Predict the 3D structure of the following.
Amino acid sequence: MNKLSFVLAAAAVAACQVAWAQTEIFACVDANGKTEYKNTGTTKGCKKLDLPGLTMIPAPKRAVAAQSGPTQTASAKPAASGPADFPKVDSNTQKTRDNDRRQILLDEMKTEEQKLANLKKDYNNGEPERNGDERNYAKYQERVAVMKEDIGRTERNIEALKRELNNLR
């Protein structure tokens, strides 16, 4: 394919702004009767499915409003618009919802902090007590690694909850 035909093909695709996603899909049934969907039918028990093509249309481009200058403030932004029949929520109902959300996040934070304290206590600075069924040192190391991952995950959960709470203020 020469450069000119490539450029023309690219221009044609860009002009129509529509892309089609097509591939072959196979339904494969294994020995246990479990069905898996794959993009290759190389294994035994696979049947090609005849599915309609999927059309993807990009979102419309929005016009960027010109700024009036450095004096424009955040309050000068236009309010978000929605459909005319979109239900409105009065401020008291919204405050109640926000307070409920804050309380739920605080409860989750308390639970996660308690969980973290228990995990750190069990972890014992990287040297937890060995269980009776851990005669093999590799099993012990595996359990310690899982404990360390759990501590890290719980710490990340607490950080995420703190960010959510800060976003509410």
Observations:
- Residues 121 and 128 are 9 Å apart (CA to CA).
- Helices lie at 3-16, 91-123, 137-168.
